[in-house]
Write a structure and sequence with these properties.
CATH architecture of the largest domain: 3-Layer(aba) Sandwich
Number of helices: 9
Largest sheet: 6 strands, parallel
Number of strands: 6
Structural class: alpha/beta
CATH superfamily of the largest domain: HAD superfamily/HAD-like
Shape: globular
Number of domains: 2
Mean pLDDT: 97
Helix content: 40-55%
Oligomer: single chain
Distance between the termini: 14 Å
Length: 235
């Protein structure tokens, strides 16, 4: 009997934090802004708190079902919360300029190299919490590898890891769930995908433990180069 990973022909990718380097792209912008306010706040810690608040906003958006705000809107709300938490004065125009950094995100170098290798054997699809126009822009202009498709959670009005996202992806891609592998650096994304029958790779960029769950990833790698090498065994 063939290995389950031998069935996989389509890879869906988390984009923010897995393919694109959020910390490396955003912390310098935060640092410059805090310096302009003569603030002694550590920009790295500010980003950690902003990112954590953004995830909470996303979960609240999905659970409360009061209307899907969209990725940039919840990022904006989380930014404002974090600025207020630290007592940093800001204007609407300043916060708007900070949010524009999401349009300039750059990929991890290993992601660019690994995606190029993976594209030779697999269909590559972005499956992102991002706004559709934003992930279209980022994949077309900021990542030097062609994706075969871009799917936004806007199609279902729920953020990952809501199961409707992964079911939508399988339907849109006309694939059985077991023919798709979700690739993410965040365990919640792998949990959601595995719960819907996808295979999963946990890219452990951040050296974090995986969740205590029966829904374990098929592969755990440090970066995309390792992923390309690991998947070569199953082709």
């Amino acid at each position: 009997m063939s290995h389950p990973l031998a069935r996989v022909h389509t890879l869906t990718f988390d984009i923010f934090g897995t393919v694109l380097d959020l910390t490396g792209s955003i912390v310098p912008v935060v640092k410059d802004y805090l310096a302009s306010k003569n603030s002694a706040i550590d920009p790295q810690q500010f980003w950690v708190d902003w990112r954590g608040r953004q995830r909470l906003e996303q979960h609240q958006d999905t659970i409360l079902m009061l209307g899907h705000g969209g990725y940039l809107e919840v990022a904006r709300r989380a930014l404002l919360f974090t600025l207020r938490r630290y007592g940093v004065e800001f204007s609407d125009g300043e916060s708007t300029e900070i949010i524009k950094v999401f349009e300039r995100l750059k990929p991890f170098e290993d992601a660019r190299i690994g995606l190029e290798k993976l594209s030779e054997h697999y269909k590559l699809v972005a499956l992102s919490n991002g706004n559709q126009w934003l992930i279209d822009h980022l994949t077309e202009n900021n990542i030097d590898v062609k994706f075969d498709g871009c799917l936004s959670v806007e199609r279902v009005g729920r953020f990952k890891p809501h199961p409707s996202v992964y079911r939508m992806a399988a339907t849109e891609l006309d694939c059985a769930p077991g023919e798709i592998m979700m690739v993410a650096a965040h365990s919640f994304d792998i949990l959601g995908a595995r719960a819907c029958g996808f295979r999963g790779t946990f890219v452990n960029r951040y050296k974090l433990p995986y969740e205590e769950s029966k829904l374990q990833p098929d592969l755990v790698v440090n970066d995309f180069v390792e992923l390309a090498e690991a998947l070569a065994e199953y082709r």
